[in-house]
Design brief:
With 88 residues, this protein is an alpha/beta fold. The protein has three helices and three strands, in the order αβαβαβ. A three-stranded parallel beta sheet has the order 2-1-3, with helices on one face.
Length: 88
């Protein structure tokens, strides 16, 4: 099964916000693709890749309201979360 993860949208948001520390949160079904997602984003931001840290949140994710605790300790500028529907 193929999914459109709209990675370009995530990459553009990183560029737009000039985020230096990004956390990616995925539902369990997408966690096996975490490294591939991280690599795709890093490659797209190649010119800035040395300046950007991308963390993968390995904890649970039960929806848009389930944001990780402790992101402030990592000084995360941007949380990118994939789930069932768009947060509005």
């Amino acid at each position: 099964m193929n999914y459109n993860l709209e990675l370009e949208k995530a990459i553009n948001k990183i560029r737009e916000t000039k985020a230096k520390t990004v956390c990616i949160q995925l539902p369990d079904g997408l966690k096996p693709k975490a490294k591939e997602i991280q690599d795709t984003i890093t490659k797209a931001l190649e010119k800035r890749s040395k300046d950007i840290k991308i963390y993968i949140w390995a904890g649970s994710c039960f929806g848009a309201c389930d944001t990780p605790n402790g992101l402030e300790k990592l000084k995360v500028d941007l949380l990118i979360q994939w789930g069932h529907s768009e947060w509005k």
